[in-house]
Amino acid sequence: xxxxxxxxxxxKFRPFEDYDKPPFFDNKLPYAxxxxxxxxxxxxxxxxxxxxxxxxNLIRALVALVMNPTATYEWxxxxxxxxxxxKSTFLDVLVHLWGTYAGxxxxxxxxxxxxxxxxQNLWNKRLLTVGDIQGTQKDLxxxxxxxxxxxxxxxPLYSTNTLSxxxxxxxxxxxxxxx
Length: 179
Prior knowledge:
The protein has five helices and eight strands; from the N terminus they run E-E-H-H-E-H-E-H-E-H-E-E-E. The protein is α/β, with parallel strands linked by helices.
């Protein structure tokens, strides 16, 4: 893994030199990835502090789903909980794990309706978190197309040029519960 990048479109690892489009991952890891390794102790302490140790397996599964480049699309994770229960903190952790390939929005999915909104919020993003989703979200057709990784039209602001491509983006939402 340290000498290649994962090409999501081709679903395989490719050498750095063999790249003709922006990479999915662009950081080399200075160590070998061990799928049998235990999570770092400070991560487990964070999970225990925010969610309680009884949620450790669930949180590990969510992180694995979001971070695994071979996981399928067509899924949206929605974290629900009481106000101030750590939902947004967890979303922030996920965004920081992804670095510049991640972004976050607050409150609404309306920005996906227009090609300009999609470009501003999705272009070159592989993870997008949306916190504080409340009430009824209307006209979700464009959002559903993006989630299912359908060809999507993007347009930079003040430009007449449109781009059509698959977004290759994963989504994690957070919604407050009433009780």
